[in-house]
Amino acid sequence: MKIIKVADQIEGAQVAFDILKEKIENGAKTLGLATGSTPIELYNKMVASDLDFSDMRSVNLDEYVGLSKENSQSYYQFMKEHLFDKKPFKESFLPDGMATDIESHTKEYDAILEKYPVDLQILGIGNNGHIGFNEPGTAFNTQTHLVDLQENTIKANARFFENESDVPRQAISMGIASILKAKTIILMAYGQAKADAIAKTVNGPVTKDVPASVLQNHPEVYIIVDEEAASEL
After folding, report:
1. Most buried among 83, 104, 107, 208, using CB within 10 Å?
2. How many Cα neighbours within 13 Å face the side chain of 203?
3. To which protein family does this belong (predicted)?
């Protein structure tokens, strides 16, 4: 684990972009992407750059169950707005929140991940230490699966919706085992609210109670944090 302390999200995005650019120059072909506020500045830098993603593939971590691709709060729309409409990839894969047979769909998504191994995975982290939508208690050998979102995750995501009651209660997420298969992982965290989760991820025991702590077992992880997120290290 390499801990990189930065002044703010803008500097963190630049550090992440520099790592991403180097990996692409060294042959990376598949990027694992995340949603939420944390990676937005990174995507802005990707859009503003001269990097060409038209011969690359992307796979996203997760999607809400029950939201169609057309829904403004779907992660599909988030990725279109912040990256794909401006910097299209050869192919971009996201879980289908409207899949009628979720068990079959998760197996299909695992097959995509097997066919196109992730070279570089972007992660954020939840206040409770979740990565993707893998909530505390998730087994480390989990692959793509249906997740029941915990109450604090629902509350944290409510800011993106008109009402908290509009936040979906389930999601499809890459599992922890799926995430760990990435050759390189960049986790970004900003703000005091993430300090406890970061401290437990870096210094605490590897435990299912803090899903991100399993990253201690990965050979190449960069953790990019501002002063507040790093305050309990």
Report:
1. 83
2. 9
3. Belongs to the glucosamine/galactosamine-6-phosphate isomerase family. NagB subfamily.
Instruction: Provide the 3-class DSSP secondary structure of residue 146.
Output: strand
What is the residue type of 16?
Answer: A
By three-state DSSP, how is residue 100 classified? coil
Residue in this structure with the two tokens 């042959």, named with its chain if needed: 27
pLDDT, tens digit (0-9, with 9 covering 90-100), for 170-208: 999 999 999 999 999 999 999 999 999 999 999 999 999
CA distance 203 to 210: 11
CA pair distance 195, 127, nearest whole angstrom: 8
Polymer length in residues for the chain: 233
Catalytic site includes residue 85? no
pTM of this prediction?
0.94
Structure tokens at 19: 């790592």
pLDDT tens-digit readout, 134-149: 999 999 999 999 999 8
